[in-house]
Design goal:
heterodimer; A: about 425 residues; alpha/beta; six-stranded mixed sheet; about 15% strand; globular; B: about 90 residues; Ubiquitin-like (UB roll)
């Protein structure tokens, strides 16, 4: 399904497949459009081709805007680093019966994207943006980030042999800064919030046309990488869509592209005939809720907010894809909810103790939103729900600090017994 | 009447003869935009719709602060302030 053009989502103007991201006529965002899939009408052939592909997002390369198919299969010694980069995607979809039981739901699955190379779903989008940047002849990668993207771009640059500049808010979690600098990237900390960083990078991208800012001038390609979350879920469920997706919303890009991925496969007949788009439930933090607020108020446009939440990876106060996220939630009879910082901590703990998956604050937002919907009776008893967990708990350790106590003892059996008895007394 | 400077993004500089900074006058953001459109008429349709409202993917910052945190187009201006026009960019983190 070769890409044909970049098209403005607002006015439909078309542009060549270069490093453009904004329509010069109406300032709307540009999106990749594709020619018809060569095997349209033969879903079996499409499925077989996918199944014969590598165990990475490149098995879906037919649905991504690249001229060459990157593959991790090296053709010879020394050929392992080209367009390939890190092996993104192919993350587990785990059935979470204990979580479902606790929430009174029939069937919950966790799409654990913390299992990506740098432990967040950002490896997917960066893989596509970096591969396209190489095709277009860029030599430097850059990004504005709240951390996870910085990790992914820094690692991708290291894998591909490209210098990297990352711009992050100065108050970011230390784990995310350390996990960026270690790859040799130039880390620029900006005194301001993510929206200030994003504004600066939009300006820099205009003045440094030889840099590939993965989420600015490469944005149309980058965003397409998020569709692979939907493709994987559908393939892992046996070419079916779940009844509902619960996913976080920051800019709204991931949320809308999950919808686009399912829609593309539905249109191609890759999914069964009776398969519909899932109900799309978006999750935001109460401390940064512009999309949830607009959805609840019935507005089409998001009024920006100043973020104040522990979910820093979702702290985009001015979400550019917000209007499209709202459209998608409405179209699928879905929801967009917000949860408090305490609920976020509770969500992290709930997921950890019922599934063994430790997620970062963004995953706490998503899990807490699932719980909120379940508690409110908004999820049907027969629904198959997929919870999209986008990042790793080790990156936001502050969120769980102080939530439990260790028992320190001397290396003595008697002391251990005393502690064990004490514990039994407490828990009885 | 305040004299302010607009910073024009690269995507729109064809309409300003390649200039990245353009002076304008007005007591409010809306008035300053009108003065900008008088000097560079091609900018109007890119930035505002038929009702005169900013298009939904246009962001305007007054000395670094989104005008939607102020009074939007009605935000008052004083001399030597800087108005930056930028496209909303999706897909961050």
């Amino acid at each position: 399904m070769p890409a044909s053009s970049l098209t403005c989502r607002e006015c439909g103007s078309t542009y060549p497949l270069e490093a453009h991201f904004v329509c010069s006529k109406c300032f709307g965002p540009l999106e990749v459009k594709y020619d018809e899939h060569p095997s349209k009408g033969d879903p079996e052939a499409i499925r077989r081709r996918i199944q014969a592909g590598p165990a990475t997002i490149w098995r879906y390369a037919d649905f991504l805007p690249l001229e060459r198919v990157p593959t991790l299969a090296a053709s010879g010694p020394g050929d392992t680093i080209g367009l390939d980069g890190l092996p993104a995607g192919h993350t587990p979809l785990v059935r979470a019966d204990r979580l479902a039981a606790e929430l009174g739901l029939r069937e919950v699955w966790v799409k654990n994207d913390a299992a990506n190379p740098t432990h967040s779903f950002k490896d997917r989008v960066v893989a596509v943006a970096a591969a396209r940047a190489k095709e277009l002849g860029f030599t430097t990668l850059a990004c504005a980030s709240t951390g996870n993207l910085a990790n992914a771009v820094a690692a991708a640059g290291a894998a591909l042999g490209m210098p990297v500049y990352v711009f992050i808010p100065a108050d970011l979690e230390e784990q995310k800064i350390l996990a960026t600098g270690v790859y040799g990237a130039t880390v620029v900390t900006v005194r301001g919030n993510y929206d200030d960083v994003n504004r600066l990078c939009t300006e820099i991208a205009g003045e440094r046309p030889d840099w590939a800012f993965v989420n600015v001038n490469m944005r149309p390609y980058y965003a397409e990488g998020s569709k692979t979350v939907a493709f994987e879920i559908a393939e892992q469920l046996g070419w079916q869509t779940p009844d509902r997706i619960v996913a976080p919303i920051a800019s709204g890009s991931l949320f809308t592209k999950i919808g686009k991925g399912f829609q593309e496969w539905k249109d191609l007949g890759v999914l069964g005939e009776d398969q519909e788009l899932p109900i799309m439930s978006g999750a935001q933090a109460a401390g940064c809720n512009p999309v949830a607020h607009a959805f609840e108020q019935g507005h089409d446009v998001c009024r920006p907010v100043k973020p104040n939440t522990i979910a820093k990876s979702l702290a985009i106060g001015n979400p550019a894809d917000g209007p499209y996220a709202i459209e998608l939630a409405r179209k699928t009879r879905g929801t967009i909810s917000e949860v408090t910082d305490d609920e976020i901590r509770g969500g992290i703990a709930l997921l950890a103790r019922t599934t063994g998956i430790f997620t970062e604050t963004a995953g706490g937002v998503t899990t807490a939103t699932l719980k909120k919907l379940a508690d409110a009776g908004q999820i049907g008893k027969d629904e198959r729900v997929v919870l999209v967990i986008t990042g790793e708990g080790l990156k936001t350790l502050d969120a769980v600090r102080g939530t439990f106590e260790c028992r320190e003892i001397a290396p003595s059996f008697d002391e251990f017994e005393a502690t064990a008895e004490h514990r039994e007394e407490v828990t009885v | 009447m305040a004299e302010v400077t607009f910073k024009i993004p690269t995507q729109l500089r064809a309409a300003t003869g390649g200039e990245g900074k353009v002076k304008a006058e007005g007591a409010t953001v809306e008035a300053a935009l009108e003065s900008l459109f008088t000097a560079h008429p091609e900018l109007r349709s890119s930035l505002v719709d038929a009702q005169g409202d900013l298009r939904r993917f246009v962001n305007v910052y007054l000395d670094g602060e989104d005008i939607r945190f102020g009074d939007g187009l009605g935000t008052a201006l004083s001399d030597r302030q800087e108005l930056q026009i930028l496209p909303a960019v999706a897909g961050g983190r």
